[in-house]
Amino acid sequence: MTMPLALPGSEIDLTAECSSFPDRPEKEILRSDFLDSIDDVFYGDAEVLILDGPDGIGKTTICAQFACRHRSTALCLFVRPGNRMCTDPTYLHYDLCSQVHLAVTKRSFSEASFPENYLLTKLPVLQRVGRKLRQPIFFLVDGLAELSDADLPTRQFVLQELLQIGAPGFRFILTGPPAALLPFMKTSPNYRSQIVTRLHRRDVEAYVDDFALSVELVGEIEALCNGNPGRLAQVRRIVKSGVTAELLTQRLQEAAPDLFRVEWEPVRALAPASRLLLAIVAHDRFPRTIEQLAAILKQPVDEIAPIVSSLSFLTVDPQSRVVTYASESFRRFAGDQLRALEPQAISSVIDSLLEDEASEAALLNLPSYLERVGRFEKLITVLDPEHITKLTAQSRSLHAVSERVQLGLKTARRLHRQGEMTR
Description:
By secondary structure, this protein is of the alpha/beta class. The chain has 20 helices and eight strands. Helix 7 (215-225) runs parallel beside helix 9 (245-255).
């Protein structure tokens, strides 16, 4: 049974207000049958549905498609473990509040910040809207289970503070292993777990039908990818890079054990500066545009841009121009390949921030970078009272200020210099 794509008479699109909503891919496989099965789950008494499955199976895509299907009643957060901004509690709070504001007022929010108690005051209004429309309000959160140990407080913040799990009229869709999510909830919900299934042969054929590949080659692609959309997307990028059908056949045979390495092959011929760029994108976790990467590397933009565009596993957002890896799985793979360059990559970012220590970016980010590379003496310097005063004046988040103060106190204790942080 399928619910309507949008509520009758409703013109709002909450997905357009979601800052973390993923970009639509060039070609997409609509998982209608699986979306129907999610709808069926919520016709029962389940409050929470947890979607599980291996990397690349399509959990993020299914969440995005379900949100588009219920665009007027689905609020989303797409947490990106490889992106510091998209794991920051302040960012996630603002993203969800913006969607709630649109849902209850039908107007986009234009101010700089929300009161900390905004959700507590507006979610009851959202409940009444749902009751009036006789529709559940959906909250979809993707990526929480992939957070590293250092970001576990974010997982707890989302599941305990942002989401009111158990509140009447609300239904929740999360992704990842249930064991990585349930312990972080205040109470045990009535939940269902569902494994995301692989694609069918007809889906694979439709996904590559614009390349005029032979039936035999499509069969090889299906066998290699085993119905995994993430691996299928990799094959598509390889084909688009200009590989002939004959060479593709050879590469697919070679790639059976490791498809990532085939797409990574052009990196071998890159200059050191270009490899450093890839290391920054893999290890920095802060979104960087082509222009910002060029500034960090002290290279002309017109030399950086062609390199980025030539690599099939990198994507550039057409609006923000932020450079990212094509998937979180590929970012982790690239990080492993470029592990030796991680200290140099982070040091390059630090040197760029130190050129303007008074900037908001430096005030907010230098402390965590310096801690990461063990430069504790410099960390104490940038977390002196003057730094904290400037940060308090510029930051919209008391949470961010508190985090830096705690980091300063911890570092001072490490260096036995508590007096400098408490004066």
